[in-house]
Amino acid sequence: MFSSVTELAERLYAVRYIVDHVTLHVVFLAAQMRKPLLIEGPPGCGKTELAYAIAEAADTTLERLQCFAGITEEKAIGKFDEPLQKLFLETYAEDLKTEWSVIRERLHTLEFFAEGPLVRALRYQDRSCILLVDEIDKVDHSFEALLLEILSAWQISIPKLGTVIAKSVPFVVLSSNEERRLGDPLRRRCFYLRFENPTVEREIEILTLRSRSRSSKLNGQIAGLARALRGWNLEKPPSIAEMLDLAQALEILGVQEVSDDQRDLLLPLLAKTDADRKRLLLRSGFEGLVADSKRYRDRFMRRERSENVL
User: Fold this and answer.
1) Is 229 exposed, middle or buried (0-12, 13-18, 19+ CB in 10 A)?
2) Does residue 153 belong to any structural domain of this protein?
3) Is 166 found in the same domain as 23?
4) Strands 62-66, 191-194: parallel, antiparallel or unpaired by DSSP?
5) Could you report the per-residue pLDDT of 200-225, keeping only the tens digit for each?
């Protein structure tokens, strides 16, 4: 998939994903050693985006299994297409002059199976795909156990169908927001990465690379705004993607610096719950937020200037 760490770094940068030294090497090792990658961290810190960036960097397809409470095996694996089976029997009824056991075996093949993302990921033939199992912490331990056969033997056993063996081994990324602790059998099979919300410095890098704004002053304030919001223990702290949306909105509006009088305009972009909105509507709420954003920005810019002098 990637011939070297350098190639991986260059390709990820080309698709505008910034990655630290440790993550870069772990991703490369996981690809080389065919090990799943388990990434834990708060929502919106770039876990899912890493999987998409790897797929784009490798020029391959991403198969996504979005987990949720109550997810069924059929959603993940697939199921037999009963209407298609029935249509086949009705269409070829006169030609099916064989034992019922033979007909039943014919009906229980992949030809009549509507594949879910887990099966599709194993059946890529020309090149490996990226299999993203997103928010795995939302499922229970029984569903988690379903993945162990895939992650251990790169195959999956399906009643009536048999065992589907991987034609090519997918690169597996599992993401977790830590709503519950994942089991040790799953952890044992994976390389582990811990993601946190980015520092002001890292978020400025991301904004500089991915937003259209070339104003270091504005990007610095947006990154400072993100840092301030995440430090306020909001019900819904902003994700990296939401701050990129804010940067785009400010660019469209021609705003060069966020100020107190823009509160009502920017509130729908910053507060995503009623409680957070009410908090920012307090007299000192938005004013304090703007002041903190400038403080974080100015601290970063002073440090950057001193480093350039040295």
Assistant:
1) buried
2) yes
3) yes
4) unpaired
5) 999 999 999 998 877 889 999 999 99
Q: Do 280 and 185 sit in the same domain of this protein?
A: no
Integer distance in angstroms from the first to the last C-alpha of the chain?
40
Closest CA to 67 of 158, 143, 130: 143
Question: In angstroms, how far is CA 202 from the centroid of its own chain?
Answer: 18
Is the overall model pTM greater than 0.85, yes or no? yes
pLDDT digits (tens, 9 = 90+) for 46-85: 999 999 999 999 999 999 999 999 999 999 999 999 999 8
CB-based contact 67:146 (threshold 8 Å): no
CB 299 within 8 A of CB 292: no
- CA angle in degrees (0–180, nearest 5) for 250-255-257: 105
- CB environment 239-265: b (16+ within 10 A), e (fewer): bbebbbebbeebbeeebeebeeeebee
Q: How far is CA 59 from CA 1, 2, 14, 56, 166, in A?
A: 9, 11, 12, 5, 20
Please name the amino acid found at residue 148. L
Q: Are 154 and 206 contained in the same domain?
A: no
Between CA 208 and CA 244 the distance in angstroms is 10
Residue 62 φ then ψ, to 5°? -110, 125
Strand ranges (E), 82-149: 113-115, 130-134
Of 194, 229, 258, at which residue does a domain stop? 194
Tell whether the torsion through CA atoms of 197, 6, 53 and 191 is positive or negative. Answer: negative
Does some domain include residue 166? yes
Whole-number pLDDT of residue 303: 85
Structure tokens at 82: 């009963």
Q: What's the Cα-to-Cα distance from 40 to each of 15, 28, 73, rounded to whole Å?
A: 22, 18, 23
Strand pairing class (162-165; 171-176): unpaired
